[in-house]
Every structure is written in structure tokens, then in C-alpha cells.
Amino acid sequence: MKKKLMDILACPIDKHYPLELHVFEGKREIVEGLIVCPRCLRWYPIRDEIPEMLPDALRKEKDELPFLRKWVNEIPSKILKEGKPFNLHNQLNSSV
């Protein structure tokens, strides 16, 4: 994904703009990262240079949680604890 795309993206759920970008891997192109809506705390993964901005009903927990676990040290703690539609709140509490 090109960083410039962030200039036009809004949250598909609440239409908030601008969104936050967290880059985990990439230089010119973002290979892996996270797009976050600061209003509703929904997060959208960027995998293989593609932003996956799907509505909650089309997302599967079994596909999303491994992404959160992979980047747990890079993802803002607010998203790990309160992010929607899925988060690691229960897992983070049990590991303390």
C-alpha cells in the first residue's frame, strides 16, 4: 500500500477521517501495518501491501487474532485491549 492512500481513506463504519497509520514492515510500499480509526477504535490490517478494510460481519476472529499476536509489540496498547471488532484483552490480562 502506498502511504499516499491514507489521504483519501476514511473508516468504513463511522466515516471518520483522518485515520492513523502504523507501519510494521515496508519502505516505499507498506507491506504490513495497521490502519486505526481513533473514533471507534476499529483496526484494519495491511497484509501483503493490501489494506483490508472490511465491515465487522465479514471479518473472522480466527484470521484477525494471529495478526494482532504477530505485531503485539508494535500495535498501540489501546487497540490490543479495546480494539474492534477483536482484541487481545482477555489474553493480555491472563499473561500478567
Protein topology:
Elements: E1 20-26, E2 30-36, E3 43-47, E4 50-51, H1 61-70, H2 77-82, H3 89-94
Antiparallel strand pairs: 1-2, 2-3, 3-4
Description:
The chain is an alpha+beta fold and 96 residues long. It has one domain (3-94). It is built from three helices and four strands; from the N terminus they run E-E-E-E-H-H-H. It is globular. The termini are far apart. The mean pLDDT is 94.
Quick overview of this protein structure:
The protein has a four-stranded antiparallel beta sheet, with no helix packed on it.
Multimeric state = single chain
For the residues shown, what is the average pLDDT?
94
Share in helix: 10-25%
Task: Count the domains.
Answer: 1
Q: Kindly report the spatial arrangement of strands forming the biggest sheet.
A: 1-2-3-4
Rg from alpha-carbon coordinates = 13 Å
The strand count comes to: 4
Q: Report the sheet with the most strands, covering strand number, pairing sense and barrel closure.
A: 4 strands, antiparallel
Order of helices and strands: EEEEHHH
Number of helical stretches of at least 4 residues: 3
Q: What is the CA-CA span between the terminal residues? A: 35 Å
* Helix/strand class: alpha+beta
The outline comes out as: globular
Beta-strand content bin = 15-25%
As residue ranges, the low-confidence spans are: none
